[in-house]
Amino acid sequence: MNPAQVLLFAVGGLSNAAYLFIVAAGLSLVFGALRVINMAHGSLYMIAAFVTVVVAEKLGLAFGFWSGLLAALIITGVIGAIIEIVVLRRVYRAEHLVQLLGTYALTLIIAGLVRIIFGPNYRTVKSPALFTGSVSLAGFSYSVYSFFMIGAAIVIAAGVYVMLYRTALGRNIRAAVSDPELLSASGIDVARLFTTVFVIGACLAALGGVIVAPSQAVGSSMDTDVLVLAFAISVIGGLGSIVGSLVGSVIVGEVYSFGLQYAVTNQFALAFVFIIMAAVLIIRPWGLFGTPEQ
Amino acid sequence: MIPLIRNPLRWAVLAAAALLIVAACGGGGTTTGTTTFKGTKKLGLSTTISGVSALYGKAISQSVKLAVDDVNARGGVNGYKIEAVILDDNTDVNKAVQNTQQLILQENVVAMIGQVLSSQCQATSPISKQNKVVVIAPICNSYQLTTEPDLINPYYVSIVPNTYMEGTSAGTLAGKLGAKRIFIVSPNYLFGRSETNAFVAALKKANPSAEIANSESTWYVPFPTNPRWDSTINAIQATKPDLVYSNIFAADQQNFIKQAQGVDPDFFKKYPMTTLSSVDDLSTLASSYPLGMHLYMRAPFFALSNSRMDDFVKRYRARYNEYPSDWAVMSYDAVQVWAKATGAAGSFDSAQVLKQLVGKSFQSLRGYSFTIRPGDQQANVGETIGTTADSGGKYPFPTLKEVTNLKGDDIMMPLTLMNELRDGKCEKGGDPKTTDFALCPSWKA
Questions:
Q1: Which of A62, A216, B111, B222 stands 20 to 30 A from B28 (CA)?
Q2: Do B274 and B138 fall into the same domain?
Q3: Which long-range contacts (CB under 8 A, 24 or more apart) does A97-100 make?
């Protein structure tokens, strides 16, 4: 493999890592603050992708994608708030198994509703005009949209970092992770804070769904497709750690991209992701950048 | 007695409920329109209403409903009304097995329409064999299902061009195109391996100098796949083949095409592609589906126009507001084939129905009649090949130009080859796991 090919496969891995990071970051943020493993996270991602397609179909390509982005964030945010208030508040103190079952039930309900509302047909939407086309580099073509995905992931990563470490909201979220009772005693409305965190997590899932929509067929199985990998990333990086999600998604994206290129590793490319996850669970169960649960 | 009829509305409701209960319990005959039926018999279908192949399951279930309604409008089968019992298998093998057990053991279906994935048919065939339930397979198509001794099921009939027929057709086509370096991408399960194997064997025969650009272990991608195809697309760029052969389908094909065009709008001009496709794939991507692609298709309505097909398309569109896919055409045929054979048998007994299926001919929507060959119980159905072209506004998706409708008799596996496979003459060192028709003496000859 020559350097140009290494670059080609590395960029391919990074574009995979980009949308996976956006989704996994939401999953991780929710777990870190609320200590809930949200199985419905993939469902929110799927809803956002469908909303983008429908809005883009109605409004046309020029503004459709961006209007779809806005509509998807609003709709998914509202659904996220409803889920947190109606379902999650009742299971915060329950065992993780109950939380898992509760949010898994939501995935089944949402999958059914998506099929009823949007139908089983796959839908497609074109990339926004600004990010259409390709660039040539060292003899190979690269999709401009792939670079947009990578750029969007970097901006979102920076945004989440600033929100967590440079704002009052972030300070409260980090305090809630450490000691929610103490935070509540200091006058902060922890219930509202948890709703806010869950809505932010839902919006990150939505961003992932919107950003991925122009590059793949939008269908009713995309919830589980992304959830499995998002969980693997969160476990590798450490549930609750945004930096961990970033590193985990790059590991998963690159392992898959390069793994498929070699005859000896091709059939195990996806398995390697889970082998790494298993190894992390054995050696460092709280993940590469996570912290042990107290 | 007077108080009992004081509320006539209540009595009307009770009477209606009683009638419903009697009807539900199968008491007496049922009446639909002007036809009085002796009762109801169930036809089972487990299909991919959700999951990766949901696109196909929708068309199949719609078509089966339409076909069953048509059968009932003609008076049903043997005086019985037919009811389609349709279950979702989520494009999952285990769920297909559960559904088949439920349909046979709990719903008491008299026959079944086969599943979508070859791996599903492979797993469910022993159940129908054990319970002696006729299966008409219009979609799953690995030739091993009707030739491999361990899988042979006397109650299983295939009315879809199988992987031998498709793979060798595609291989011969690629050989004639003069491609020297070919990149292969295929789903890693029974269907993909079976069809790719047939493609390579036929290619080598048609053009011995052709070479496969990627190593064999990279031909197959995990199935169901990761929806991202960057790695495969990049590998094609790195390999620079002069033809890409694929039999990926549904969401996988759409994702691959979309992402490849994102990388380079001229991707499929630089790397021409021969691939399995369907009306569903064309209509989903619509104007984004690349022109100039070499497709092989099982039953595209637009290339098989005839009075029956045209009438079917008209009624299907009127009912579902969409064009019927290849899967819809073949599934409609499957129900009609079963209904005709069962009617001719005058019985729902599987053994009697089989006598009216095997060796018999049936009229197809595809514009010809096909015969179910004794031996492998494979119908001599054709395959359509052509190159994608703009339909000129006739349809909201591209269709084919330079169309050739290959005849089933010309592409079927020769009986000699089939018998050699069954007799274990196509293995390496007597290991049945290495069975490959390209190793058969008659193929080598």
A1: B111
A2: no
A3: A99/A36, A99/A37, A100/A37, A100/A39
Say whether B304 sits in a helix, a strand or coil.
coil
Q: How far is Cα B71 from Cα B38, in angstroms, rounded to an integer?
A: 15
Please count the CA atoms within 13 angstroms of the CA of B393 that sit on its side-chain side: 0
Q: Hey, are the CB atoms on B227 and A121 less than 8 Å from each other?
A: no
> Which of A126-130, B62-66, B360-364 has the weakest average pLDDT?
A126-130
- A283 min Cα distance to partner chain B (Å): 27
pLDDT exceeds cutoff 50 at B83: yes
| Least confident segment among B106-110, B211-215, B432-436 | B432-436
Q: Which residues from A are below 8 Å from B262, CB to CB?
A: 127, 134, 143-146, 214-215
Residues of B in Cβ contact (< 8 Å) with A15: 228, 230
Give the pLDDT confidence of B154-179 residue by residue, as tens digits: 999 999 999 999 999 999 888 888 88
A270 chain-B contacts, CB cut-off 8 A: 222, 226
Average pLDDT over residues B26-36: 56
Quote the pLDDT of residue A75.
96
**E-strand spans in chain A?**
134-137, 140-143
Residue B344 to chain A, least CA–CA distance (Å): 37
pLDDT of residue A269: 79
CA-based nearest residue in chain A for residue B56 = A121
| Residue in B with minimal Cα distance to A7 | B234
Domain ranges, residue A269 = 3-283
B269 has a chain A CB within 8 A of its CB: no
Query: Whole domain around residue B41: which residue ranges?
Result: 30-161+305-371
User: So what's the pLDDT on residue A189?
Assistant: 87
Distance from CA of A13 to the nearest CA of B (A): 8
Are B114 and B194 part of one and the same domain?
no
The predicted-structure confidence for A103-155, as pLDDT tens digits, reads as follows 999 999 999 899 889 887 788 888 888 888 888 888 888 889 999 999 999 99
A263 Cβ under 8 Å from any chain B Cβ = yes
Residues B335 and B394 occupy one common structural domain: no
Domain assignment present for A78: yes
